[in-house]
Amino acid sequence: MNKKKIITSLIIASFLLIGVVSAGLVSWLSNTVSADVEVKGPIFYLDNTNILSGKSESMYLKLNDDNVSGSHFKLSEDRFFSDSLGVESFYPMDFRVILNVKTFDLPQNETTNETIGSCSVEAEVKKVSNLGGSPEKLCDVIKIGIDNEGGYEAYEINCEGESDDEIDFNKGDRLELFLTNYCDGNASMNIKLQGESYINIVPKE
Amino acid sequence: MKNKKINLIIASILIIGIVASFGIVSADRELSNAKGIQIEDFVAGSTVEANFSYDYFEGLEENTEDSPLIFKLDVNSEEKDYPVWRGDFNINGYIERHRIFGLFLYKVPFSCKELNRTINHSLGSETVSGGNGTFYCYNRSADLKLDRHDNVFLDIKSEPALYPGNYSLSAKMFYLNDTYAPEVEILNKENFERVYYKSGNNIEVKTSISDVNLNKEETIGKIFWNESEIKLAKNYQNGTYYFSETLPDEIPEGNHTIEIFAKDIFGNSATDKTRLLIDETAPEIELISPFSDDVYSEIMLINASVIDEKAGVNPDSVRYRLREMNGTNICSGTGFGAWDCYNSGWKELNEMKEGSEFFTKEVNTTKLNLTSGEYWLDIKAKDILGNEAYLKND
Asked: Is there a contact between B191 and B244 (Cβ–Cβ < 8 Å)?
């Protein structure tokens, strides 16, 4: 009987405690809505629209929009520019450069018909002024051994940022991606657009 | 068995209490019953939509006079080294409102500012502190006027340089405060600014007080003198407050203050004041003629100067009395009785001209059949408040 009384009292005390705590918290909890969200680094898609009127062969780095112009292009020395970013600084960053690539006419062993050459691509990311001048290198990397002739293949090139500190920007500054083709013999490289080639900015590790 | 019943009742009361505490509006005038926020992960530099809702009734009883509603949004970063700075986000939005059983939808747009700014609205102006991820959202009329089940949509645009990571977004909706003080105006100041009163007089202060959120309990009238005060009785009739009081005996002569104070439920207060002039001093009487020991055979001119600098002399109150003397005895009472002597009784002294300090009367001693002898002259006067003075004969 005593045990029953104790248990009943405990249950009542619990209700009382819950009541008091709830009364204090409810008004605070219920008049505020909240959510957690993950923000990822921006993505600049390669697009063959000529963006800088004064610069020939200046193509476009389209921010966060994979609906791009052009299907592919033959890589030689090609420059892509973003819009002015309108920011005052950027955190120290690395760049994931994703290129969807296909090679052509790689040298072959005349006897065995085996492919004996390959292509390389150098990717350099720069900060440039609104008009495309005053370049400041942010990262530079060369990817070697690209030798897929069968079809397009995505290559991920990690371009490690050169600055460990926050990078100052003027609001008119743009990003430039400068791609250079190094192929053996008469080989060449095509890069597929269609939202499958892009740069993704990630915080420097 | 009885114990079990009591326990059940107590538990039920507690549960009801908990449920009741989920009120629509909490005591601090913030709306509750919020639902949401729906938002998806996004890429820096893009625009993402978020939405949420509040279970809210327009014309809610607690929402006195439909106080304007605004949102407060807070965006915070989990990265200590990269907190949210002003300009990292740009937020605007709209409320989607349903009409005719949800058949028609229309949008009420609002803008969100990440700044310290003053919002002017129908009940006042309120300065809110925004910045570094804190936004205040409202529409042009500064009132979002949500209906029950209205959905709120936010367009959140981020900067490309926003640091990738986890962020929290919270939205709070609340009333804007009434910052306007009540309007208090004493309507009958002319009854006080140049008018004197004395203890025992009744005063009534007619006052207009307007404020949509007036706290009637905090509407008070007081008289202040030296370090004392007295609270006035309050009566409300046809849109006007009447504060009244019988002036107490202890109120001293002097210029005091009547203050009417009003406060609204937001704590804004206002006062209006007027003077209360107290005059407890009787007029000063100075005899011009006759001179003491003068002898008159027929016409005797009584002439007195009567002055009251504050409330002023009541001209109808200035009177004289002539009484026969016998040595040091003065005829008392009506003049009849043991000593059959002359007593004129109190008779009027006439104002020489309107507003003059001189009051006169020609007394024809022959007509009055005054016998030769000595007579005692009294003069008395009151001010308009009733403070009475007697001529002091030396």
From this structure: no
